[in-house]
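Below is a filled-in request sheet from our internal design queue. Each sheet records the structural input a requester submitted and the sequence that came back. We keep these sheets so that new team members can see what a complete request looks like end to end.

REQUESTER: design group, bay 2
PRIORITY: normal
MODE: inverse folding
CHAIN LENGTH: 264
BACKBONE (tokenized):
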């Protein structure tokens, strides 16, 4: 059974999985945009005590990819891939938590809002929560490498529930509830750590540590593409600046005339 599970993959499938994972974990603006949308949905769902909305937020969240990418970098001893993945996770959290705080301030009763069941669930830091994260990490990495199992990844994202704890941290900070924010943050860190550990087991069993060259090429390719996209965005912004320049000239001239008249 072990041979079928971990040794039946072709080298091409492994290369494709690594390239896809690195592409999905690239720190593009659309990655962070989707993360913010997911956290806002989860925050609204938790404030409304609506489990369906919370589940929907997990389906659009992209945070699982850089966590798996970080795990891949660890087993490859690839410092650049680890730093890149860590930066993506950290930047995502620094954008998503303030979004949850702002949503709580604007759409709830401030610091006196009710503690719904959906919020309370995100304070559970038991050993069961750690076991769920471990199993989710194993399932996510296994489904990622096996092309025929990729349809199961949304279910894995729901089971590990990375986004709701982030929203709970934001809700706790917005309500000045240190216990809520602290418990949710601990749950989030437990989930991330156990996902990394579980996925490392699968990546090691599938011998992905010998694919560092493939990973480095994929990272360089995505980073180059990201720089090109940024340059294209900068070039597209220049015509808009030129269009505004006549208006700026008119305003500047009007100011000079007003100054001249005031001196008179």
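RETURNED SEQUENCE:
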């Amino acid at each position: 059974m072990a041979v079928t599970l971990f040794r039946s993959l072709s080298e091409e499938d492994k290369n494709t999985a690594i390239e896809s994972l690195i592409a999905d974990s690239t720190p593009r603006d659309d990655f962070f945009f989707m993360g913010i949308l997911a956290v806002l949905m989860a925050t609204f769902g938790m404030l409304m005590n609506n489990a369906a909305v919370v589940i929907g937020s997990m389906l659009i969240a992209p945070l699982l990819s850089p966590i798996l990418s970080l795990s891949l970098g660890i087993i490859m001893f690839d410092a650049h891939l680890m730093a890149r993945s860590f930066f993506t996770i950290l930047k995502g959290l620094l954008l998503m938590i303030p979004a949850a705080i702002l949503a709580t301030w604007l759409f709830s009763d401030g610091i006196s809002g009710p503690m719904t069941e959906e919020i309370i669930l995100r304070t559970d830091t038991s050993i069961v929560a750690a076991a769920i994260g471990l199993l989710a990490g194993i399932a996510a990495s296994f489904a990622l490498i096996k092309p025929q199992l990729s349809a199961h990844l949304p279910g894995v994202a729901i089971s590990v529930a990375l986004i709701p704890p982030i929203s709970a941290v934001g809700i706790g900070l917005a309500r000045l509830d240190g216990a809520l924010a602290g418990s949710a943050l601990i749950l989030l860190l437990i989930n991330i750590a156990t996902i990394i550990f579980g996925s490392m087991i699968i990546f090691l069993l599938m011998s992905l540590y010998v694919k560092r060259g493939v990973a480095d090429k994929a990272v360089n390719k995505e980073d180059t593409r990201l720089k090109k996209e940024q340059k294209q965005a900068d070039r597209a912004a220049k015509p808009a600046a030129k269009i505004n320049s006549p208006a700026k000239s008119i305003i500047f001239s009007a100011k000079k005339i007003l100054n001249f008249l005031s001196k008179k």
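SHEET NOTES:
- The two ends are 95 Å apart (CA to CA).
- The chain has one domain: 2-227.
FILED BY: M.R.
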